[in-house]
Specification:
alpha+beta; 34% helix; 27% strand; globular
């Protein structure tokens, strides 16, 4: 599945659309084609503030448009610069609940010129669905997205 999506992601990046439109298309592509991706979004560093701001996303609307560094999974990744896979969100003390249906989350930082400028965030309503293949694929997605930022 991920191997089939790689050229589609690259094709979106190479299109003549704006960066925001490209990221929106990627969110929609992933949500539509990966059965355990129920919400897909990008968060980005909000200027000089120690917070993340929601960018493009596909899935249910969220109240979490601003996330302080250190808060929730996304806020922790903003500080750690490391992928964070949460098989069971209920087991995380520092989890920000977006929906009662979310069971698992994966967040992968997005680097431009070695700086963590954002991340891709995936919520899943399936318990413990993420594998190393998800991490590797999302790292590829962020590598591609970094080309347009």
């Amino acid at each position: 599945m991920f191997e089939a999506l790689r050229p589609q992601v690259s094709s979106i990046i190479d299109s003549n659309k704006t960066p925001d439109a490209k990221m929106q298309d990627i969110c929609e592509l992933l949500k539509a084609n990966v059965p355990h991706y129920d919400w897909v979004g990008f968060y980005f560093k909000n200027g000089d503030k120690r917070e993340l701001k929601l960018g493009s996303y596909a899935g249910a609307p969220t109240d979490h448009t601003i996330i302080p560094y250190g808060k929730g999974i996304c806020g922790q990744v903003a500080e750690s610069n490391q992928n964070f896979v949460v098989p069971d969100v209920q087991s995380q003390d520092n989890y920000i609940a977006c929906s009662i249906t979310v069971k698992a989350e994966i967040v992968v930082p997005l680097f431009v010129n070695g700086e963590n400028i954002g991340q891709i965030d995936i919520d899943s309503n399936t318990p413990d669905p993420f594998t190393k293949a998800d991490e590797t694929f999302l790292e590829f997605v962020n590598f591609e997205v970094a080309k347009i930022l």
